[in-house]
Amino acid sequence: xxxxxxxxxxxxxxxxxxxxxxxxxxxxxxxxxxxxxxxxxxxxxxxxxxxxxxxxxxxxxxxxxxxxxxxxxxxxxxxxxxxxxxxxxxxxxxxxxxxxxxxxxxxxxxxxxxxxxxxxxxxxxxxxxxxxxxxxxxxxxxxxxxxxxxxxxxxxxxxxxxxxxxxxxxxxxxxxxxxxxxxxxxxxxxxxxxxxxxxxxxxxxxxxxxxxxxxxxxxxxxxxxxxxxxxxxxxxxxxxxxxxxxxxxxxxxxxxxxxxxxxxxxxxxxxxxxxxxxxxxxxxxxxxxxxxxxxxxxxxxxxxxxxxxxxxxxxxxxxxxxxxxxx
Length: 327
Hints:
Blueprint: H1 2-13, E1 23-26, E2 37-44, H2 69-85, E3 90-97, H3 108-115, E4 120-124, E5 127-128, E6 139-146, E7 150-157, E8 174-180, E9 184-190, H4 199-217, E10 221-227, E11 262-264, E12 272-273, E13 286-287, E14 290-294, E15 298-305, E16 318-324
Helix pairs in contact: 2-3
């Protein structure tokens, strides 16, 4: 009954869309220009509610909410520890969340802010309820953290799903764009997952690359990092997941990349697992849908997944070392 009431609340609340004014910028202790080589980590945190002991209804599981408050506490503690143990210049983070029902009232975004306290940061609520009191309020979306001072930041809206629903919550998709001196543009992104036939994903990807090309044409080096919800590389991790739970799986359309642009992803380490059941290695389907797309002037020196056994999220971090080769 409680889950039914929550579903109804989220459906009604979804009539209040997120807007560019939901962009939040925070200043850390950063300063100065970035060098020509950066380390960047991308990670979808699964709002600290999708650790190894979780399943999720939208993916064919039984639960709408995390298993327990203790589970979310464990996940968030692990997320903070993992970020501290994997130092980087920039973090592209997805599914940051304020306290609310989906996190069982844990402050996931606050925990990440604690772990990366000295970093400049920018956050966009692609899911936000406007007319509900704090116990039911949702504030949820992608963010970016930079060791170097942000010159500017903005949100670039992406096409929404035709019915404007992802599961039971309306999402208003957007790119979190951060510009860092002298000429870096880094984007944290999270594309659609539940769109039929990947039709919305294709429109979002076209809009993403249109923006990225224009940004690069202005003389900037562009890194697109995040959860693409496309298979970025071919993999064959063993699994026993039924085909009915793989309805969302689509290969990245190579023709979407302009000449010279390239994918940087680690084919040896899965970045995502299915949520039709709690995680069991060899049973859940695993894939690489998290990674980076780089502009032609960039060289990927190293890209590696961080194997965590999906302990804290249904995604695992991906780490990139990248170098600018300015003309």
